[in-house]
Specification:
heterodimer; A: mainly alpha; 5 helices; 0% strand; B: 22 helices; globular
Chain lengths: 152, 498
């Protein structure tokens, strides 16, 4: 665990330095007249202090080797999930809600959850159309239109 | 308006058909997600936040509260039948509940768990009614220094009782405070840390951050290792505990209720702390401690009562002081903010229909939960057979939908993804999400109180120690902060947020 504490402590220390640097570029003001950079600077300093304490605490952490991944971890599924979320974000407005949701649901069901093609397609169609119906017709919440939405 | 008129008003609010329907939906969903391992109230409430934009604030909070305490009921079913806690707070119930199921006594275990939860939940609601209004009146005396000190104490407390490192928790709280300050400065109207992205001018959205950390982060963590376990007793019968079961359980239920209520009122006092406290006490005072862990009904009754009393008490600091006591309360805090309501001492005064309506809904919700959890138990048992591979795409999709529909903005999906990855890494590096969420949602309040205090004192930090209430709060915070360095941190406590 020690290695993880050192890595995370150093990351947080770097982040705190970046926050402090960014705050100093804003107007910090004075104690009697604090300005926009004052509060972020304080949070950056406090984060810096705690990240140093994490690094000090890491010396007490056990030297036991903790693996990042579980022994039979579904690593491919995790990476793909992050990728599919990114694809969903990028295609949602150009392709429309129904088309993108069908694609997203199909990809996650087929390649992350490991469902059969037919099951994945069925889930994708049912979820996207039913959600579209609930949000646009029942809740009157607009969702991005695409060519499939033109059907309704 | 006197006490009884307030209660009558609360029941008149909850008697509206729409509120009854959403109270039922809340406890139903709560039970469902409590039963399903790997899907907690945090992600569920966060992914239902978009639905609350379209509802009346009172209705949406009634539903959200129902999900929270409903999940506590449902969590015990999975613990007893599957030996997997449906919720982290139900871990203690696994110890004896599962053993009872193995001995063919799943029925009485589930029965006493539901009745114990009902008694504790009703007591907590009653006590909430009596404790909250005077506490809120007292808190009205608080000025900026007291508010700041109270927030500092809340952050120290939530990290003090967490299961992980306090220093890591406080680092996360500081990071949360910083993240909450991104966007336009409330005092000077200057943009901060927007890095040229105009969508950040309004700040990081509460929903994308919470949905990312809790929803996406949790799904990804669950995807890594699949659940595999054996269900004992797919058919459950004889749910009504015998006279002997009642005799053995009634005192543990009373003690568990009191423990849960007092632990729940303390910021950071999560269900898991109260359940283990109750379990330890029952085992210690029992004439047959050797039966614990082998199917003692007292080991189910006490912790279940503690857990449910705790969930009711968790609302006290939130509704009276504006302090979210754990991660889920932070999400409820966020849902109040989204609905244009500021949790804190003024809430009871300004929104009496909300406060008393939610309380009245808790009585109704507890009755609904007993009905849902006893006669319908066979249906819940069937839900246990739904594989996580079916749930995961659904949860992920609703997370994304929730993040997007707040502002119909694609950048919110990217923020959700970033915080999803961050939430996953936090779990790997043993950092808790609750302090970060808490810091994030109270950031504006903390900054306002801090800056105003400095302006009041002419730039002197001594203002936090010159005023008696503020000084006491700061001293308690300092003691709690220093205790772990002296090796005095209790090792068995843990927060119930994840």
């Amino acid at each position: 665990m020690r290695k993880y504490d050192i890595v995370s402590g150093l990351f947080l220390l770097a982040l705190s330095l970046a926050i402090c640097a960014g705050s100093l570029r804003l107007n910090v003001g004075t104690l009697t007249a604090p300005s926009s950079g004052f509060f972020p600077l304080v949070t950056g300093l406090v984060l810096g202090i705690f990240s140093i304490l994490i690094l000090i605490e890491s010396r007490k952490s056990g030297k036991d080797i903790v693996r990042f991944w579980a022994s039979d971890a579904n690593k491919k599924g995790i990476y793909l999930t992050f990728l599919f979320i990114l694809v969903y974000a990028l295609l949602l407005e150009p392709l429309g809600f129904i088309g993108t949701t069908i694609l997203f649901f199909f990809l996650v069901s087929r390649f992350v959850s490991g469902h059969r093609w037919a099951t994945a397609v069925f889930f994708a169609l049912v979820t996207s159309f039913s959600t579209y119906f609930v949000f646009t017709i029942l809740l009157h919440a607009p969702l991005p239109p695409g060519f499939l939405e033109g059907i309704f | 308006m006197d006490f009884w008129s307030n209660i009558a008003m609360g029941f008149s609010v909850v008697a509206v058909p729409l509120n009854i329907i959403f109270c039922f939906l809340g406890v139903l969903l709560g039970t469902l997600i409590g039963v399903l391992p790997g899907l907690g109230p945090g992600p569920t409430i966060s992914l239902l936040l978009p639905l609350t934009y379209h509802l009346d604030p009172v209705t949406s909070i009634i539903m959200v509260a129902g999900i929270y305490y409903g999940a506590k009921y449902g969590g015990s079913t999975t613990s007893i039948l599957l030996n997997i806690p449906g919720e982290v707070d139900s871990v203690a119930t696994c110890l004896d509940g599962y053993q009872m199921a193995r001995q063919g006594r799943a029925g009485p275990a589930l029965g006493i768990s539901a009745f114990g939860s009902f008694i504790a939940g009703t007591f907590a609601t009653l006590a909430l009614m009596f404790v909250a209004p005077p506490l809120a009146s007292f808190a009205l005396r608080f000025g900026p220094p007291e508010i700041f000190s109270l927030m500092v104490l809340a952050m120290v407390l939530i990290t003090f009782v967490s299961s992980g490192s306090q220093v890591k928790g406080l680092a996360m709280a500081s990071l949360g405070l910083f993240l909450g300050s991104i966007g336009l400065d409330i005092f000077t109207n200057v943009d901060r840390f927007v890095l040229g992205f105009n969508f950040l001018l309004d700040g990081l959205g509460i929903v994308p951050v919470i949905v990312g950390l809790f929803g996406v982060g949790e799904v990804i963590s669950n995807l890594e290792v699949q659940f595999r376990s054996e269900i004992y007793q797919k058919r459950v019968s004889n749910l009504l505990p015998s006279l002997k079961d009642w005799k053995d359980s009634i005192r543990p239920i009373i003690r568990g209720t009191l423990i849960g209520f007092f632990v729940g009122m303390v910021p950071g006092g999560g269900g898991i702390a109260s359940t283990f406290a109750s379990y330890t006490i029952e085992k210690r005072i029992s004439k047959h401690p050797e039966k614990f862990g082998k199917g003692a009904i007292e080991g189910v009754a006490g912790p279940e009562a503690a857990n449910n009393a705790c969930s009711g008490a968790n609302f006290i600091p939130l509704l009276t002081l504006g302090i979210p006591t754990n991660g889920i309360m932070a999400i409820i805090f966020a849902s109040l903010l989204i609905n244009g309501l500021q949790p804190g001492p003024m809430l009871i005064k300004n929104q009496p229909n909300l406060f008393w309506g939610v309380i009245a809904s808790m009585y109704l919700g507890n009755v609904m939960l007993v009905i849902l959890n006893l006669p319908l138990i066979s249906i819940w048992v069937r839900f246990l057979t739904i594989p996580y591979s079916v749930l995961a795409p659904l949860v992920l999709f609703f997370c994304l939908l929730g993040a997007y529909t707040l502002k119909n903005a694609v950048p919110d999906l990217i923020i959700t993804l970033i915080f999803g990855i961050f939430g996953f890494l936090m779990r790997k590096f043993r950092y808790e999400a609750a302090p970060l969420i808490m810091g994030f949602v109270i950031s504006e309040l903390v900054e306002g109180a801090f800056i105003r205090s400095l302006l009041m004192s002419g730039g002197s930090f001594s203002i936090f120690f010159r005023r008696p209430i503020s000084c006491v709060l700061m001293i308690i915070a300092a003691i709690l902060f220093l205790l772990p360095f002296l090796g005095r941190k209790p090792k068995t406590l843990g927060s119930s947020d994840e």
